[in-house]
Amino acid sequence: MNIYDHIYRLALPYLLTRSNEIHIPISKGFAKTILLTEQGDPEVVIPAIILHDVGWSALTDEMQLQAFGAGVVDKDLNRMHEVEGVKIAERLLEEVNYNSQKALEIINIIDKHDSRLSAISDNDRIVKDADKLYRFTSEGLIFYLDWFEDVSFEERMAWLTSKVDSWFFTETAKTLALKELEERQA
Ligand SMILES: [Fe+2]
Description:
By secondary structure, the protein is an all-alpha fold. It has one domain (3-185): Orthogonal Bundle (Hypothetical protein af1432). 69% of the residues lie in helices and 0% in strands. Helix 5 runs antiparallel to helix 6 (100-111) and helix 9 packs antiparallel against helix 10.
């Protein structure tokens, strides 16, 4: 089994919440696509995108609802998924004997993947972009509309459209986001 599949297999039990078993393969696909045209190290980017949300497994559905979304967000609860995610990711990377220097960079990316708005490296830029691109897919859109029933399709589309320029670091991701929006609208 290749190393990324091995990491994904170990991560899967921690991804069975908040539809992360759907989010992660989709964002991993985006990361691979972005890596074709943007500068980055797949050995950092791919494990980071696989593992970045494992910490949600430590929060109940109730806690998760307060910890993300376009409305009022409980920053402490959101931070909790980053802190718990670091602990789990460190353990899983050790379990597969991952290169320690790369593991350190992966952990640094996971540690503040939501709370830090800037990117610390080319690799972080790609992880952040691949993570957010999920929101523009049909799976990401439906997931959001199911969780936040008071938000309409039109409102969510307008919000996503308004975020393309400020959310994405790479031109490749911006292009992919606009393409997804076109498909959702169609
Ligand atoms: Fe994510």
